Amino acid sequence: MPQGTLEVVLIDASGLEKTDFLSSTDVYAIIKCQDQEKTSKVASVEGSSPTWNETFMFSISWDVKELKIRIMDKDNLSADDFVGEVTIPLGPVFESERVPTTMYNVVKDGTLCGGLNVSLKFNQQTTRSRGFPNEDLGGWKSSSAMD
Questions:
Q1: What is the per-residue pLDDT for 78?
Q2: Which of 59, 60, 111 is CA-nearest to residue 85?
Q3: Running along the chain, 147 residues long, what does each successive block of 10 average in pLDDT?
Q4: CA pair distance 70, 37, nearest whole angstrom
Q5: Can you tell me the distance from the alpha carbon of 133 to that of 92, in angstroms, rounded to the nearest whole number?
Q6: How far apart are CA 54 and CA 117, in angstroms?
Q7: Strands 27-33 and 66-73
Q8: Cα distances (Å, whole numbers) of residue 52 to 42, 62, 117
Q9: 86/140 Cα distance (integer angstroms)
Q10: Which tens digits make up the pLDDT trace of 125-140?
Q11: 139: buried, middle or exposed (CB in 10 Å: 19+, 13-18, 0-12)?
Q12: Which among 41, 58, 75, 133 is placed 20 to 30 Å from 145, CA to CA?
């Protein structure tokens, strides 16, 4: 099965719901692909329109169907608040190897609660026969010739 690297660029969000009444919204994202999970930096003091401009890399195969991004609000004295979630189908990035910056809907309890800008790139891993690099260079083929 073809494998490769999925590059996820988490750009920014807009229109996110404010979850804290007395303090600012300090938003971060948890990006999950299969059993791999990455966390963005906390975008402090940016409220409902945070900017990250962070890149995350995942090793994946083509049988992966989707990427999930959970948006969270960091709290110091209590559990972090769930802001919303984005589910991105990966079929288009496998077909074209790149999905330009696209605004995805952030959803919480079936309700639209903002947008998240993400771009994707898939770099297919090329493998050579038997997994040995540069099989045709050096080795017994060129060193066994006798004059």
A1: 85
A2: 111
A3: 88 86 80 97 83 96 93 89 96 94 97 96 74 48 48
A4: 11
A5: 30
A6: 11
A7: antiparallel
A8: 8, 27, 10
A9: 53
A10: 876 544 444 444 444 4
A11: exposed
A12: 133
Two tokens at 138? 């050096």
All residues at 6 or more sequence positions from 62 whose CB lies less than 8 Å from its CB, including other chains:
1, 2, 3, 94
Q: What's the length of the chain?
A: 147
The residue whose two tokens read 């769930």 is: 82
Nearest C-alpha neighbor of 52 from the set 107, 14, 97, 94:
14
Tell me the two tokens of residue 26: 């300090």
The pair of structure tokens assigned to 62 is: 């083509």
Amino acid at 3: Q
Cα separation, 124 vs 106, in Å, equals 29
Tell me the Cα Rg of the chain: 21
